[in-house]
Amino acid sequence: MFGDDTIAAVSTPPGEGGIGIVRLSGKDAINITDRLFHSPKGKKLSGTASHRIVYGFINDPYTDETIDEVLISVMRSPNTYTREDIVEINCHGGMLPLRDVLELMIKEGARLAEPGEFTKRAFLNGRLDLGEAEAVLDLIRAKTDESRRIAIGQLRGRLSERIISLRGRLTQVCVFVEAYIDFPEDEIELSSKDEIIASTEAIHSELESLLKSYDEGRFFREGLGVAIVGRPNVGKSSLLNALLQKDRAIVTDMPGTTRDTIEEYLNINGLPLRIIDTAGIREANNIAEAEGVKRSLCAIEDADMIIAVVDGSEPLTEEDLEILEKTRGKNTIFTINKSDLPAVHDLLPQLAPYASRILQISAKIGDGLDELKDEIFGSCLKNWKEHKDGIIVTNLRHKILIQSAHDSLGNVLKVIKTDHQPLEITAIELRDALDRLGEIVGTVTTDVQ
């Protein structure tokens, strides 16, 4: 168990709603609530079976005032989220009753929970491993069905199971090698050496496959950052509104209307898109506009993808060419906007040196937007069909640890294939790979001084 104290917190988001929940976890959760609970039928929570709901009222024992009418869920350990006794008090969803109920629980002996402490207790009490605990936050923050599906897979332990399996196989290799170190008079037979190499190469290959899934998988966890850039009045804000199908950004004929970056989320085939409308990039006329241009340039550097917009009804300007130069070599889709207007010049030959992906669109009437969405999805998730039904790495911490284990096994293969290298080096690298994989699921911890 985590400790002797009982924690309490409001477990529903701030604001008004039909229901709000105050949750307690710990050995005194039921007793603390019982002292404040009044049932019209005289029921006691201490006598209530696990996973039952009881109707009644929360009363203030100091003033004998009724605080709220409630439904209380009683869940007894170990069959709970934290593997401790849990009480969930379903109050009316205003901030006042929730606050008053929580304050009474604390007065009666509970402690205010730290952020994430319920999940922390679930981990420390063995209900979740570290990878599954991290997936809880991913599930809460999921913005599309696909990102939710990935988070559910992590929460169910799919990645953890794979890591534990790999550690088991790697442990066998490690034991085999260390046995030969302990008994140096017995030389490794060729067949045994080949077996070690084959096992290590298979594990090394599986880790490499997991690493390849990260670059695409992380987009579903964090969202793909896409910056819409261009000079003033080429239709950046109109494009944002058209993609979102709502008037999120102000659109006028006056250059410089957008002074700051505007961020919104968009769902493209399950991919959460964090789309950023930027201020028009040009020579600024005042401090406010200069700051907007500065943020636009920062957005170009930080974005996973750039949509560079030019006006197809006008010839390219020096400002257009400057923006094209700044996006050269980046993951950029060039869009020629205002295809609904007569084209003054053929811009394709001028844009061709800067990129191969050029689309004709009209943000005003919606032409070309489906092709743009398909291009965004396809260019960033080229191998998604291969990874979709497999185990996907979305967490940077996991990726770094898998990369470290992968590198260690690469060193193992180099050493063991070289007869002149001492076998102890192989054992050290194998142990390092085991530890790094153990850190993913929390079976190994590293002390930080």
Explain how this protein is built:
With about 450 residues, this protein is an alpha/beta fold. It folds into three domains: about 5-125, 2-Layer Sandwich (Gyrase A, domain 2); about 140-220 and about 395-440, tRNA modification GTPase MnmE domain 2 (Four Helix Bundle (Hemerythrin (Met), subunit A), Up-down Bundle); about 230-380, P-loop containing nucleotide triphosphate hydrolases (Rossmann fold), CATH 3.40.50.300. It has 15 helices and 13 strands. The strands form two sheets. It has a seven-stranded mixed β-sheet with strand order 3-4-5-6-2-1-7. A six-stranded mixed β-sheet has the order 9-10-8-11-12-13, with helices on both faces. Helix 11 (about 350) links the parallel strand 12 and strand 13. The protein is flat and about 85 Å long.
Using only C-alpha atoms, the radius of gyration works out to 29 Å
The gross shape turns out to be flat
Estimated share of beta-strand residues? 15-25%
- N-to-C order of helices and strands: EEHEEEEHEHHHHHEHEEHEHEHEHHHH
| CATH class descriptor name of the largest domain | Alpha Beta
CATH superfamily of the largest domain: P-loop containing nucleotide triphosphate hydrolases
Descriptive labels:
3 domains; single chain; 15 helices; Rossmann fold; Gyrase A, domain 2; 45% helix; seven-stranded mixed β-sheet; 449 residues; six-stranded mixed β-sheet; alpha/beta; Four Helix Bundle (Hemerythrin (Met), subunit A)
Summarize, please.
This protein is of the alpha/beta class and 449 residues long. It is 45% helix and 18% strand.
